Amino acid sequence: MITIGKQKIGPGQKVFIVAEVSGNHNQNLRRAKAIIDAAADAKVDAVKLQTYTPDTITIDSDRPEFIVRTGNSWKGKTLYQLYKEAHTPWAWQKELFAYAKARGLMCFSSPFDVSAVEFLETLGNPIYKVASFEVVDIPLLEAIGKTKKPVIMSRGLASVEEIALAIKTLRKFGTRDIVLLQCVSSYPADPADMHLATIPDIQKRFRVQAGLSDHSLSRDVPVAAVALGATVIEKHLTLKRADGGPDAAFSLEPHEFASLVQSVRLVEKALGKPSYTPEKNEKDMVQFRKSLYVVEDIKRGERFSHNNVRSIRPGHGLSPKEYRFILGKRAKRDLKRATPLSHKDITK
């Protein structure tokens, strides 16, 4: 169980749903706040920022390896150009943390270098997110671990060995609580590539909580993840995909996100816990179970037989499993047709 203030994350708790703001603010502070408003209206638990600058995450170079080759809105830009467009100005972040808190949401961030961790500590960042591509950045993980705060980490391209080293590093330097998110690093992701069966394997293999960071446009994928044991769901939120922006193509709009939250809350209630006891709403259904009833008038002392006792609906009499036991026994009193049989009606 992970406890952050009043928030608890873990099995038996509400799924921790995170709306990722990312670069969907399009360099407009008012729009960033509007995304937080949409997240609050959708009833998520937290919003997440990203803390980097173009200079802390890459360098300004147009060498071929610095040109984005993926086939979405990023294609053809240099990494520096992409992160200049997508980064959240550090000067906004204190204000955004406070704004989210005022809307009843936890706010936290993904740092992308050690200086970002140092900066986020000044803001009281309550939990750290390790982005999927940063799983291999051991110096960054050491700095995060030293804060001793909980960590949510996306798997992405990381191998089993890389994940194991990342977890070992975080724990060595002080992190106790870790949630590892199944994540496919394609934007948008194809649901067919999600391999949600990895979620229970994460729990067993790494002995940590598991969740999902979902870059697909599906609302079914996160719901299925919850059914498989995910305790955290993270998904990108934008005001309108048509407005564009670096992450808009794989982000949900407010009404879609609200629908997702409602579905997750319904499924987590439906999952419940192992139970073989009838629910309150089932108790009237006993009418449709079978039990042993008198189907012909029986006099006191008369024997019970196939002719005067049957297993029929409703279920207010003795269980049908006692049918063979009562055959041949004598009635202790007169019994009218349609009387449910009970032990007190049988002469011992």
Verbal overview:
The chain folds into 2 domains: 12-52 and 87-271, Alpha-Beta Barrel (TIM Barrel), CATH 3.20.20; 280-345, Alpha-Beta Complex (Type Iii Antifreeze Protein Isoform Hplc 12), CATH 3.90.1210.10. The protein starts with a strand and ends in a 22-residue tail after the last helix. The radius of gyration is 30 Å and the shape is elongated. With 348 residues, it is of the alpha/beta class. The strands form 3 sheets. Strands 5-4-3-10-9-8-7-6 form an 8-stranded parallel sheet. Strands 1-2 form a two-stranded antiparallel ribbon. It has 11 helices and 12 strands.
What's the short story on this structure?
The chain contains eleven helices and twelve strands. The chain is α/β, with parallel strands linked by helices and 348 residues long.
Identify the notable features of this structure and list them briefly.
alpha/beta; TIM Barrel; Type Iii Antifreeze Protein Isoform Hplc 12; eight-stranded parallel sheet; two-stranded antiparallel ribbon; elongated
